[in-house]
User: What shape does this take?
Amino acid sequence: MDRKDLLSGEVRDLKISGKTTLNELMGAFSRSGGFTSAKVATAFTIMKKMFEEENTTFLSFPADIIATGARGVINELVKRHLVDVIITTNGTLDHDIARTYMKYYSGSFDYSDRELKDLGINRLGNVFVPDESYGEIIEAKVQPFLETAFEKKKEWSGSDLLREFGMQMKSDDSILYNAAKNSIPVFVPGMTDGSFGSQLWSFYERNRSFKVDLLKDEHDLSDIIFDAKKTGALMVGGGISKHHTIWWNQFRGGLDYAIYITTAQEYDGSLSGAKLEEAISWRKMREDAEFVNVIGDATVILPLLVGAYL
Assistant: This one.
């Protein structure tokens, strides 16, 4: 590129008022020059392409944000069928089930955890989760469901089991329900983790012919990947959700589009901190892919992106 090309986009001041819409703000971000605002604007442009072009769109995220109001943003993407595949962690199942029937509460990062333990309150960052709003309610809802599912058949793939469970929740606030209603498969590679996983184990202890076939999930993912003309991914946070998304996409030469929102740093070599550029060397991202890394809290960035689109 020559000098003229590099100096083509003038930095312009943000001009906002009480009447500025999220979409207008996103346009202003694109002209602001820096720093994270410009990356958020780039993410918005890529996200629009993923949602509007003929594209198989993956949505990956960890469980913690489902304990917050950001669950509503994820749920809106699912309700509107803007994504085609969900890859997440087992805690997402826990929080989605628990919050469908019970309440979590705003708390504090700084409260005494020793006192909270004595009060029967669990702390997830600055979210307070009473004992009765977590393990107890999950057991009460999952065990009767497993009895019914077991009567239908003895062996299930993970995603089929979650679709069956989602349909019986019948709550418009539930990610699992809306995913089932819209035939969006939910894959949880670490399905034996967490409270839902413990319910599977507990049921298996009493019914040894009960099986969850996670390799069937991998077979279904392979069909999705090899049938896709293009793939994109909105990845919130790292860990197994992010890795499983980019791992499977390597078998088709990598993602065509990707947005990665994270607070992790790459200096320790972790997958969560690894920028999308690193995935190119592993062939999990195409060399010519459109992508952006946005460093920041997804509970702030995700509502901005999705709200501006909607």
Q: What stands out?
A: The chain has a mean pLDDT of 96.
